[in-house]
Design brief:
8-stranded mixed sheet, 2 domains, single chain, Leucine Aminopeptidase, subunit E, domain 1, Aminopeptidase, 7-stranded mixed sheet
């Protein structure tokens, strides 16, 4: 999908395949009113005859109206204008794209006429672009018959205040978010026989190819042995696929500026190890690397957006397999930090690869560290599949991430990381166990990670509930790429 901006035009004279207009519960937006007048009331008559109620996301295709050059008008319901938020705008844009006729190649959209309660015009334009590109996503590389992907061009008709550099910046930011989001979806959707730790390492190198501002370094298992990453290696040694610690350094800011460090859990397939998972839905355990996928997505978006700050993306990539070399419940390992861990459940492996990665990133002298992980089923029980879990002892960082989540429609919810929960990790044989008992599992997992983050400001995002869809719409969501990008964008804007 290619986008262009254009100031106000006479919609009746536009030479295109499809016009997209909006209708709220109180009536058509100005362009719709003008088209109805030009068609001598034919548009409103058709809408009424179809019992179109303008519910949010409802669509109606109207064909061949008198005095209108364009053969197809797509009317999209926007609901109650008082309730039209950025989230609602994204939903109706997605509905609009999905309703487009397959023959629609040249499209003019007038959706920017809508007034959004929690967005300025520039932010709304970003939402329109992002949501449209999200809706256009297809993952069909392993299908013998593919959906037609003929190029579409969408001209966004905007007011004079956006027909300039401001509008172009908003458009490009929406494109960048979608680029990162859809890339993360691609990685998450790949089968584990292809997307394994070495593949992710190769993707990092490809991402950096020809990019002056992005450098990549990769640690193999021998490197990690030298560094004392016993927790990471306890997971990876059960697999024939060698574990990798992948670092991507984006140098967009000033030399010497402390970076924001993003650490992603990259367990490319999680059997549970010796503590093996039930067979039902185990195929979805390829999505256990979606934290890593989100880090890749952010790095790709940063390149596209040329955001002026320093960011390091670190991916802890491993497979969790139940071979004869696999870690056993009750094994004790020494982490890179020197702390010892009794592994009580090998299916609590994400925190083991992450804890060594979180120790490793101290070398970057980070301004902020945020880890992203499909870490616990407990978080899904607590928060469902609507919001991700946010854990941080730092109020300012937590509030910034909460705000970014609201702005990006990629919401999160703050959970406690209280010292009261730490004692649940006590072990009679080691400094700590890797699980904390049956209660508060998402919290004790975060408490475990917190023991390796004392030297910097840190937040943890548990995305187990939001990283992918199950059922008929199975697939990666790309979350929390929009949240993270909005957070980084806000840091630049300060």
């Amino acid at each position: 999908m290619d986008f262009a901006l254009l100031p106000a035009v006479n919609a009746a004279l536009v030479s295109a395949d499809t016009l997209i207009i909006a209708m709220t519960t109180t009536g058509l937006t100005p362009t719709g009113v003008a088209l109805d007048s030009t068609s001598l009331g034919a548009l409103s008559t058709t809408i009424k005859a179809a019992n179109f109620e303008a519910k949010l996301g409802q669509t109606l295709l109207v064909y061949q109206l008198n005095n209108i050059s364009c053969p197809v008008i797509l009317v999209v319901g926007a609901g109650d204008t008082k309730e039209l938020s950025g989230r609602s705008l994204q939903k109706l844009c997605a509905s609009a794209y999905k309703a487009l006729n397959s023959k629609s190649k040249i499209i003019y959209s007038f959706l920017s006429e809508l007034s959004v309660t929690d967005r300025n015009n520039s932010q709304a334009l970003t939402d329109i672009v992002r949501a449209t590109l999200e809706a256009s996503y297809r993952f069909e590389q392993f299908k013998s018959k593919k959906t037609s992907t003929e190029a579409k061009t969408m001209t966004l008709v905007v007011g004079q205040e956006l027909a300039n550099a401001t509008g172009q910046a908003a458009l490009q930011w929406g494109e960048s978010i979608a680029i990162g989001l859809n890339y993360a979806r691609d990685l998450g959707n790949l089968p584990p026989n292809i997307c394994h730790p070495s593949y992710l390492a190769e993707q990092a190198q490809l991402l950096a190819k020809g990019q002056r501002k992005l450098t990549v370094s990769i640690l193999n298992e021998k490197d990690m042995e030298k560094l004392g990453m016993g927790a990471f290696l306890a997971v990876s040694k059960g697999s024939d696929q060698e574990g990798k610690l992948i670092s991507m350094e984006y140098h967009g800011g000033k030399k010497g500026d402390k970076p924001v460090v993003l650490v992603g859990k990259g367990v490319t397939f999680d059997t549970g190890g010796i503590s093996i998972k039930p067979a039902a839905a185990m195929d979805e355990m390829k999505f256990d690397m979606c934290g890593a996928a989100s880090v890749f997505g952010v790095m790709k978006a940063l390149i596209a957006a040329k955001l002026p700050l320093n960011v390091v993306g670190v991916v802890a990539a491993a497979e969790n397999m139940p071979s004869g070399k696999a870690t056993r419940p009750s094994d004790i390992v020494t982490t890179m930090s020197g702390q010892t861990v009794e592994i009580l459940n090998t299916d609590a492996e994400g925190r083991l690869v992450l804890c060594d990665a979180l120790t490793y990133v101290k070398k970057y002298d980070p301004a902020i560290v945020i880890d992203i992980a499909t870490l616990t089923g407990a978080c899904v029980v607590a928060l469902g599949k609507v919001v991700s879990g946010l854990f941080s002892a730092d109020d300012a960082l937590a509030n910034d991430l909460l705000q970014a989540g609201q702005q990006s429609n990629d919401r999160t919810w703050r959970m406690p990381v209280l010292d009261d929960y730490q004692e649940l990790l006590d072990s009679p044989f080691a400094d700590m166990g890797n699980i904390g008992g049956p209660y508060g599992g998402a919290i004790t997992a975060a408490c475990f990670l917190s023991r390796f983050t004392k030297d910097y400001t840190w937040a943890h995002l548990d995305i187990a509930g939001v990283a992918w869809h199950s059922g008929a719409q199975k697939g990666g969501t790309g979350r929390p790429v929009p949240l993270l990008l909005e957070y980084l964008h806000n840091r630049v804007a300060r």
